[in-house]
Amino acid sequence: MLFLIFISSGLLLGWSLGSNDAANIFGTAVGSRMISFRRAAWIASIFVVLGAVFQGRGASETLTGLGEVDALGGAFTVALFAGFTVFLMTRARLPVSTSQAVVGAILGWTFFTGSDTDYSVLTKIVSTWVSGPVLGMIFAAILYILLRKTLRRTKIHVIKLDTYIRIALIMAGAFGAYSLGANNIANVMGVFVPSAPDILLNFGIFFFFFFFAVGIFTYSERVMQTVGRGILALTPEAAFIVVLAQALVLFLFSSIRFSEMLMAIGLPPLPLVPVSSTQVVIGAVLGIGLVKGAREIKIKTLSGVALGWIITPITAGIFTFFALFFVQNVFGIAVTKQVPAEIIEMPAIEAEPSMLADVAQQINMVLPGLLILSMAIIVLLVYLFFRLQKKRLKTENELLTHQNQYFNAQKALNDMEINAIQMENTMLSNQLEIKRQEYNNILLNISDQKKFLESVSEQISRLIGEKDLEKRDRELKALSARLKQRMSFAREIDDFYGKIEQTHRDFIVKLTERFPDLTEKEKRLAILLRLNLSSKEIATLMNISTKSAEIARYRLRKKIGLKERANVHEFLTNL
Amino acid sequence: MKPFKHANKSIELIDNFLNTIDRGAIIFKEGVKNYLYGNRENFVDNLKTLSALETDADIYRRKVENILYTQSLMPQLRGDIMRLLEELDNTIDLAKKSLFQFDVEVPKIPAELNQDFVKLSELSAAAIESVVPAARAYFRSPELVKEKIHRVYLYEKEADKLADSIKRRVFQELPIEKLSEKFHLRYFTLHIENLSDAAERVADVLSIMAIKRTT
């Protein structure tokens, strides 16, 4: 039970790592809004675990070499106050390194217990606090220049480029998270490995991962925003470079194979130290800022970050030192197996790796892994079941809404159709009425004509038998005058104009507006011309000679200002 | 490939949108020419085509907006891109409105001004026609935008000068009796001139966007 309480401080450290260091991996991607926070959190959680499981060995050895916290009480205090310092810094919105806090806390422990501090290891670790960001800066600057050149040459459409960068960001972020897992897992392993029993350590490590993920989900968003926007407003391309540079640096500092490769070609190996992702990210952002011309770098935020780097290890060290005093003297818990204040020669770091590697290899994650995995599967299945139900209900609802909308639309359509039919009916009955009137008129006309012709025939018959020549001549003249009068078709023509004016009402309005000087006769002529009638037909309808019709037409053309070649019919049609 | 489905679709829509704006400018100047020389039928045709193009441009713009926001494409640039498309859409809107005003208000334009009006509409249309390639360049090679937009500024300046000269002639030289007719002519000069101003606004937006992408 006591052990569980002790290991809870490790969980706090895990939470701090998640909320702070892991946040930096996707900080620029989330800050530039290329990846949603949720997606970033999932990828980071999964790949950090993978990195820690598959490659998280080398770096923990170096950290243990700094000072072997050999009692669980000590390890508890070291982890608790390292985590607490990170928490304080994160609350102050300062991107801070968990590695620095852990190193500071371990140093606090060594000072308190009077153990020897291995200064060569300390120098090695502190040198990475400088070399990490510097490497990040160099990588980022080179990669950024290369990317800019490539983009300028390839001329990719900006929208396509966005998709490419999104994919690249996810891949680089996953790589970064993997490297972080491989590198930073040492922060907690380094503290607990020497003192904790193996089986509980296995479970502890698993819970540590869990709290790591909780840290990412609960508290990393704020840090991501500071990293992503605080120092320099990053474009998506720059965000990708930062993530990639950081992943590369973290990978180099945790890859045993790379160190061996450097040694093989005669170069000094990179120390396998838990470097701070925060520092590397800030170095990378600075590298890009320098390529861009260093004008946009916000010095104020940067100096705050630098201050955090100095304060973190000191604060963690002081906190741990005083806390150890209380833990040992007030609670009576052993913080070390050594005799206090007695200087005991620490075994050299070169002698340790084989033993520590053995300890590290004993960590068996299969049992807790299976347990947690099966629990996760059950939770996932239940969640999926409920989600499926919810989705089905939603789909059914949507279907019903659609059907309702469809019915309503159809009803509206039917109403419209009924209205249209009614309108058509009204129009047809109107037309029928007009036709009926027309037939009546024709009928009246026929009977009128018949009456007239009968009277003419009667008069002619009478005149045939007339003996008085003078009287016959007079009556014949009268008859001729009657016939001529009848031939003018005045009423029919009036009827014709009446109808035609009705059908061309719009045209007459337009004509009057455009040419207000036109007389009634000229307007009638314009209508006849619009109907494309010949001069002869016009002459008949206007009861004038063909020549007069042509003259009237010429005058109309002049009055409406028509050019010589222009077609009067076309002009009047387009009016 | 699925991740590129939306990207390809929005690229296609933006290309169509830019083609529509380009065609709109051509139709506008044809419409003004037809109105001035009394080709009523052709003018009505131009009006209908321009109206259809304007509707198409609106549809394309909305579709692009929809894809960019629902698929969270280009979170940093989409605001700028949508503003660019809105400003471009504004040019075709103005062109359509202006041509409709010719149809509705039927301004009496003295024959002496026909040539000037044709030239003014050509200059305004040229400003739009030059801003379209600049907008295309922004998407693929933003460093070329600057050398493309200087033409827009040139055409806009020329259109301004010509519009001033038309207004001066209307109010000081031509024997137009009614003040209402003079005002009418001034408004129509302004309507056409506004197109080149709209093109200039697009160019301004573009130049800032290009700077953002190149630095």
Instruction: Identify low-pLDDT runs of chain A.
Output: 339-363
SSE succession of chain B: HHHHHH
What count of domains describes the coordinates of chain A? Answer: 3
What amount of the residues of chain A lies in strands? under 5%
Largest sheet of chain B: none
How would you name the oligomeric state of the polypeptide chains in this document?
A: heterodimer
Nearest-angstrom radius of gyration of chain A? Answer: 50 Å
Second-tier CATH architecture of chain B = Up-down Bundle
Would you tell me the structural class of the helices and strands of chain B? mainly alpha
What is the CATH topology descriptor of chain B?
A: Methane Monooxygenase Hydroxylase, Chain G, domain 1
Question: Helix tally of chain B?
Answer: 6
Structure description:
The complex is a heterodimer of chains A (575) and B (215). Helices cover 80% and strands 0% of the residues of chain A. Chain A has three domains: 2-336 and 348-364, no CATH class; 391-486; 488-574, Arc Repressor Mutant, subunit A. With 575 residues, chain A is an all-alpha fold. Chain B is mainly alpha-helical and 215 residues long. Chain B has a single domain (2-214), classed as Up-down Bundle (Methane Monooxygenase Hydroxylase, Chain G, domain 1). Chain B is 85% helix and 0% strand. Chain B contains six helices and no strands. Chain B has helices at 5-36, 40-70, 78-105, 114-140, 145-173, 179-214. In chain B, helix 4 (114-140) runs antiparallel to helix 5 (145-173). Chain B is elongated. The model of chain B has no long low-confidence stretch (mean pLDDT 92).
